[in-house]
Design brief:
mainly beta; 7 strands; three-stranded antiparallel β-sheet
């Protein structure tokens, strides 16, 4: 499940991506935009822009953010209390 009621439960910088604990489905360009490599493809993000896709790998992207959800399916996410 990518989003619950159009709200993400996780936002991190690409440098702090945790593919074990999180599933990312949106890249946000931040205040100034960035150049980021997602799933082996490099592209530029404009400021305040976003793109929806499943993120399997990431590099670069200083200034961008990854948005998604927790992968915890047994106990459920604590972000929805």
């Amino acid at each position: 499940m990518a989003k619950i009621n159009e709200v993400h439960s996780v936002i991190v910088t690409p440098a702090n991506a945790n593919f074990t604990g999180h599933s990312y489905t949106e890249i946000y360009g931040g205040a100034a935009g960035c150049t980021i490599n997602i799933n082996g493809t490099a592209f530029s993000m404009g400021s305040s822009s976003s793109i929806f896709l499943t993120v399997n790998s990431v590099s670069g992207g200083t200034g961008c953010f990854l948005l998604g959800s927790n992968r915890e399916v047994f106990d459920g996410s604590t972000d929805f209390l």
